[in-house]
Amino acid sequence: MDAILEYIPKELITTLVTIAVVVGVTLGVISYLILLERKLSAWMQDRRGPNRVGPMGIFQPLADGAKFLLKEEVTPAGADKVLFYAAPGIGFMTTMLAFSVVPFGPVGVEGIPWFVRFLIAPDVNIGIVFIFAITSLSVYGVILGGWASNNKYSALGSLRASAQVISYEIPLGMSILGIALLGSTLDINTLLMQQTGSFWDWYFWTQPLACLIFFTSALAEANRLPFDLSECEQELVGGFHTEYSSMKFALFFLGEYAHVILTSFLTSILFFGGWHFPWIATPESAYTGAWVVKIGVLLFKVGMVIVFIMLLRWTIPRFRFDQLMNLSWKALIPLSLANMVAVMTVLQFGWDRWWLTPISLGLFAVAGLISVAMKRAEIRHRPSAAELAHQFAT
């Protein structure tokens, strides 16, 4: 065995171990995130939630997994079987591939065993571009799944979902350009390290508007409430996955939750300093087990973002589809463009970066005032009930 290991590069072993750990942990975490969301929703709606399988329902994910595995596989008549079976895998794999450039802890720190690495692909200096490129391919899983099902509801649901995903790709990418310009890099780990100087170096303080746009667009990309318009019982039944069941449906579901985890990691790393926290997790921290504390800090931030996303789901009502598209094209895209121009202006004239904070808040306030004025004008010119009755009568 030792003779065989001599011919295998340590770098390859480390990479394979890291991939296995990331995939295994992600799938295990997703199953218990589903349980956490069901518990949270039950708490917010004043009911018990899942409590039958094991003490406090902790074995419910195992029961759900067994149900998916044992459920009957159904393929609709007339469906394109190749694309019908491939679509869920495309959606799940594209999201999982994005994790390859996301740092899960401190990278390049001394004291960590050689077989432990917190980044699958450490030398990709265009990590942000890679993530946006690979996650944008997930729309093929949606459109192919809807078309291959040979169902009108599925086809209409896939068209609606693909329009939503493509529309929110633009503000999602433009919101990050401000940070890329400030950091002069597209490497995610380098952007993280630039925020480890102090608490006030976190990009959230100088880019609050970009953080809001990124988080909102990422929710829409993941089809999370209040943007889950790809399915609707009254109009589209289950949307693009109406005809999917058992493990094929589970793959779509896993892809959605993997997207939520990816979004939470990126939000924590790009805007909230990643593993950095004053006094306990800094680049100078050299006490025993410091790297474990840094991982704990990062996972705590990620957990808070995930819980916030779950709370939003059970708090904010759904948008109408026209409101969803208006939000992207009339609000988020102009705001992200204005934010990027503001960053370019500050850098060009060498102004202090803290000017970006009032500029971001000012842009947000102006956008809110314009939206209120437009809504008031629309209401003022809306015909009254008597005028509508007269129009219908004549």
Structural features, described:
With 394 residues, this protein is mostly helical. It has helices at 2-6, 10-44, 60-70, 81-98, 127-136, 138-148, 152-183, 188-193, 203-206, 208-221, 246-271, 290-313, 321-349, 356-380, 385-393. Helix 7 packs parallel to helix 13 (321-349). The protein is globular, with a radius of gyration of 23 Å. The chain starts with a helix and ends with a helix. NDH-1 is composed of 14 different subunits. Subunits NuoA, H, J, K, L, M, N constitute the membrane sector of the complex. It is an enzyme of class 7 (translocase).
Keywords:
394 residues; mainly alpha; 15 helices; 0% strand; NADH-quinone oxidoreductase subunit H; NADH dehydrogenase activity; cell membrane; quinone; membrane
Short note summarizing the structure:
This protein is an all-alpha fold and 394 residues long. It has 15 helices and no strands. α7 (152-183) runs parallel beside α13 and α10 (208-221) runs antiparallel to α11.
Topology:
Elements: H1 2-6, H2 10-44, H3 60-70, H4 81-98, H5 127-136, H6 138-148, H7 152-183, H8 188-193, H9 203-206, H10 208-221, H11 246-271, H12 290-313, H13 321-349, H14 356-380, H15 385-393
Transmembrane segments: 12-35, 82-104, 124-144, 165-182, 202-220, 249-275, 295-315, 327-349, 355-374
Family: Belongs to the complex I subunit 1 family.
Catalytic activity: a quinone + NADH + 5 H(+)(in) = a quinol + NAD(+) + 4 H(+)(out)
